[in-house]
Amino acid sequence: MCNVIEQKKDIKSLTLSMLKEELAAMGQKSFRAGQMYDWMHKKLARSFEEMTNLPKTLRDACEEKYHYTALEAVRVQESKIDGTKKFLFMLSDGNVVESVWMKYRHGNSVCISSQVGCRMGCKFCASTLDGLERNLLPSEMLDQVYAITRLTGERVSNVVVMGTGEPLDNYDNLLRFIKLLTDENGLNISQRNVTVSTCGIVPQIEKLAEENLQITLALSLHAPTDEKRQKLMPIANQYSIARLMESCQHYFERTGRRITLEYSLVGGVNDTKEDAEQLIRLAKPLCCHINLIPVNPVREREFVSPEPGRIHDFQNMLEKNKINGTIRREMGRDIDGACGQLRRRHRLELRDFGGNETC
Fold it and tell me: N- to C-terminal Cα distance for the chain?
């Protein structure tokens, strides 16, 4: 796979202080960096050419020296049920990633991808079916938010890193992305409105706890015992649930931020009364919220969502034991809503018509 990104430094992934150093080395005064940063991260310019208050000589020099990330939407699907929009974005190397825009009463949320594909192998997720292609750059994560802001004409209030990929498997780029996204000189989205989801890479969770961030950490738990979790998630063979709970407790103690436990309810797999009782025992010592997610069917898997009554019974058991549990509102079920579905369908269509996703 050719990777044009590696040929030039990625300017949109630079912090403001780094950008000042870059332009100073080109003989530019520091205020030029502020102007350029404003164009990239506030005005959401798609090219150097749009930066009309910068000298043309500087724009031309930057065009020659730097890679400028500007994602192209190759497919947009809108749910007829709830207005959710799913975007498939083309990267500069020909790969595609997907993002989701969801409109809530409390504001607009965007769910972004952190990798092209995924290597974690979770059984109910379409993202992992074709493995991992590569990590996304900070700018490629950012521009999913920027592109959706431009295309919808609406401000994004909340960002969830819960799309394709394992964010903590792309740790350094994730941290830079968060820094840029929440920078007061950019979109200035509050860290408290950023959620990062992980399947449970314990060393990275504990490392993240020391980063002095106020983001929400969401752990994809999905089963209350090691035996059941190992059947659903290969990462469970490496880290036990007991070890995971220790890392979550450490994260809460270091940050003061309540953990979210993500629990995908799969009919006949992890939705019994016994499962609920075991989940309650896990959750009680932890300051956490449990997000119950009726599994989104994936064509290549046999998993199905439980009956609505069974889902509500499961939630009621949590509530009776004073465990805060909510059922996630199903968004975009009619538009390949589950992670990785739209990207996979795009790949299969290209394959059927003799196309090639990457250059």
Answer: 6
Helix and strand counts by DSSP (H, E) for the chain: 11, 14
Query: CA 91 → CA 72, 85, 95, 97, 199, distances in Å?
Result: 7, 19, 5, 8, 25
- What pTM was estimated for this model as a whole? 0.90
For residue 160, the cross-strand partners are: 111, 195
| Cβ 110 vs Cβ 100: under 8 Å | yes
pLDDT per residue, tens digit, the chain (359 aa), is 344 455 799 999 999 999 999 999 999 999 999 999 999 999 999 999 999 999 999 999 999 999 999 999 999 999 988 889 999 999 999 999 999 999 988 899 999 999 999 999 998 787 778 899 999 999 999 999 999 999 999 999 999 999 999 999 999 999 999 999 999 999 999 999 999 999 999 999 999 999 999 999 999 999 999 999 999 999 999 999 999 999 999 999 999 999 999 999 999 999 999 999 999 999 999 999 999 999 876 655 678 889 999 999 999 999 999 999 999 876 556 655 555 555 455 444 444 445 544 32
DSSP-derived secondary structure letter, 197 = E
CB 84 within 8 A of CB 331: yes
Helix (H, G, I), strand (E, B) or coil at 194: strand
- Residues recorded for the chain: 359
Cα 279 to Cα 292: distance, rounded to the nearest angstrom: 11
Instruction: In whole angstroms, give the CA distance from residue 16 to residue 40.
Output: 11
How far apart CA 186 and CA 42 sit, in angstroms, is 5
Task: Show which residues are catalytic.
Answer: 98, 339
Helix (H) or strand (E) holding 159: strand 158-161
